[in-house]
Amino acid sequence: VWKDAMRDVDTEVTSITKSFVNHVQTSLARQPYNLDNLGAYQAAALSVRDNLLVNWNETALQYTRKAPKRAYYLSLEFLMGRTLDNALLNLGLKDQYSEGVKKLGFSVEDILDQERDAALGNGGLGRLAACYLDSSASQELPVWGYGLRYKYGIFQQLISPAGDQLEAPDPWLDNQNPWELPRLDVSYEIRFYGQAERLGDGTPRATWSGGQEVLAVAYDVMIPGCYTKTTNNLRLWESKPKRGFDLNSFNAGNYEGAVEASNSAAAITSVLYPNDHTTFGKELRLKQQYFWTAASLADILRRFKNIGKPITEFPDYVAIQLNDTHPTLAIPELMRILIDEEDQPWSTAWQIVTNTFFYTNHTVLPEALEKWPVPLMEHLLPRHMQIIYDINLLFLQSVEKKFPGDRDRLGRMSLIEEGFPKQVRMAYLACIGSRKVNGVAELHSDLVKTTILKDFVEFEGISKFGNVTNGITPRRWLDQCNPELSSLISSTLKVDKAVWLKDLTRLEALLPFTEDEAFRKEWAAIKQRNKERLAHHVQTTLGFTINTNAMFDVQIKRLHEYKRQTLNILGVIHRYLTLKNMSAAEKKKVNPRVVFFAGKAAPAYYIAKLTIRLIVNVARIINEDPDTKDLLQLYFLPDYSVSLAEVLIPASDISQHISTAGTEASGTSNMKCSLTRMLVDGANIEIAEEVGESNVFFFGHLTPAVEDLRYQHTYHPTPIEEKCPALANVLNQVSAGLFGDAHVYEPLLNTIRQGDHYLLSDDFDSYIAALAMVDEAYLDQTEWVKKSIRTTAKMGKFSSDRAINEYAESYWNIEAQKIA
Ligand code: 26V
């Protein structure tokens, strides 16, 4: 156990205040007596950073000395959120710092609130990467992250007076970032465009020259483990021009031309693309992907070479995890290095590559599968395109050998999709270039094997394809965001949180306490205080007064048609219309409900943005309606972020995960909400397997039915009026202008009236029935609290520690390293 009984807390507090004041005076060059909260945050952060740096250096040193096999997590997104609170908790210094800053006249909550989120991600995929870094360090595993240091993270979401989403930039680095260390000495030259010429000397070698050269500079972010010295690294690359600007153009008086090249270099890491689930084929995005994979590989290779082993042993020292297909160019890039620079034969190079990489798929939605136009690839990365053609040729020859004469199969499996233009299928390249491939939940991994990669399973054998069900870190999503629940758990189990936070299955010991009335009372009281904390937050930020005696119902995730926020809002309207028709006596039996939505829509996603507008305008009407406002409130909370999630999730009574069956690969907010509450879920069967079906409210059609239903929609359409009168009525009320904007919502409503790809009309009735069951269940508060406790108790499986250990053991083959 981390906590040292001999630790002298008083001395610790004194040394904290000393280091704080020292940073105020020397690092910030300010006077302690007129310091504001922002200054106090910066001083506290720098002081905590000093602690982290000691551990971080020690960890790096030991990895270098012992040279164990290491894993690298390549992700274009890391949705880290805030760092200070997490670092304090992981170091076990939260109480001491709270005490220390209090002595200096500050409150730790106010200080923590000054920090801006590091929001270098879109949604689930980016947050998963952040949870995995936390777990890797906490499990003492030698894992580093590699990503991009975007100048602007995910856009800030504003809501216009009409209810539309507006996007503003997120200049998160403006206040300086105490958590990163610029490594100006670690940089690599990255080439784009130019010419590739095969040597034609009987080897597969080629030269690549000319074009544009850009510098990749490293910024390091410390990743502290929980109650351990292990402090890993997240290395983020920034792009810079190789030379300040072009002196020839400058001297010739062409000033614009002179700075143009420098601007184009800096543009590469200027902004995170705010899309997920839709490809768009933009050259700058491809540049980001290559810039990042090439810099990361160069760095990994340099580190490997320091060990002094032959290059053929590379996979014994290095495992590289590809987070979705975004880093797939690492495969041809490593081939290029091995062949053109290391002079390896093709088959040796391919052997090394296919023993190094691992690929995780995060979606089966066709519009999210990356494909890059061949002409663009040939232009930007001519040598890589040659290599991809060569990989494809050899690959298709081996397919032909196994399935002679099966031309359809060759066409289906080719890395190059025919068409105008031809396109490179990145998921196929990632699959054949990797040692193993996995999906992110049992159901999803089965779908990967039976749909998008079916031919590859037949060709390569099933053992290459696996599953690692996603997880979330209990440090942030329980201890940090719900501290009262965390201490109740520790005191009830009589187990230090240092133990159960790192072995979440220990929560099962809570099960007997479902029968303990005092415990249940305390459990419910904590929920109530969390609701009040959220209500206070909404009151101070948005000015709304929320009824905290209501059930809090949340749907918090990116806006997407497949996630069916539309089903939820139409359900809210249905509830509103039902309430309007009730007698006073009937209304007395209704339990009040507050529905919260939060989430961003991709800026060009018209239908998703229209859904936001509908939610906002429905909220305006129903929150003002004296007939219903005590029983139903609705809020769209703008600018959803990791730190907003930390307030919302602990306050929720029920969370909605209602995507069309088979479309949500895994979901992770379901796990976060389940740590404290239950869910209505269209897809996630594993949670129900753990917590028991009686603690989950299922509804709607299951995955196998989806294809048939879509077929019916296309070839035997039934009018909505006939199929689902309740839904038809809701749609007609919206069309008629009950919430204003009579014609504005037609394109959204028509997605349901025509085609209904996400099956709202098939699932609406059973959805409403499930919500009624939730209402019914909530009336029995004793049983409800028991369900809540049981759900939390059975969440052990969904700790990201379990997930990361599976990757370490069954994929990367790496071992924990004790940092002395
Ligand atoms: C895809 C694309 C496609 C090209 C345009 C840019 C872009 C950016 C991100 C993505 C990733 C989409 C996949 C994704 O985010 N999947 C989510 O991954 C979560 C973690 O595994 C999982 O819980 C969610 O169910 C899944 O939707």
Strand order of the largest sheet: 7-10-11-4-1-12-13-17-18
Reading off the top of the CATH hierarchy, the class of the largest domain is best stated as: Alpha Beta
Q: What count of domains describes the coordinates?
A: 3
From the spread of the alpha carbons, the general shape counts as globular
Give the names of the bound compounds.
ligand 26V
**CATH homologous superfamily assignment of the largest domain:** Glycogen Phosphorylase B
- CATH fold label of the largest domain: Rossmann fold
Helix content, binned percent: 40-55%
The count of DSSP E runs of length 2 or more, i.e. the number of strands, is: 24
Q: What distance lies between the first and last C-alpha atoms, to the nearest angstrom? A: 14 Å
How big is the Rg? 28 Å
SSE class: alpha/beta
Regions with little confidence, pLDDT below 50 for 5+ residues: 1-6
Number of DSSP helical runs = 35
Please outline the major beta sheet: 9 strands, mixed
In CATH, the architecture of the largest domain is: 3-Layer(aba) Sandwich
Beta strand % = 15-25%
Mean pLDDT across residues: 95
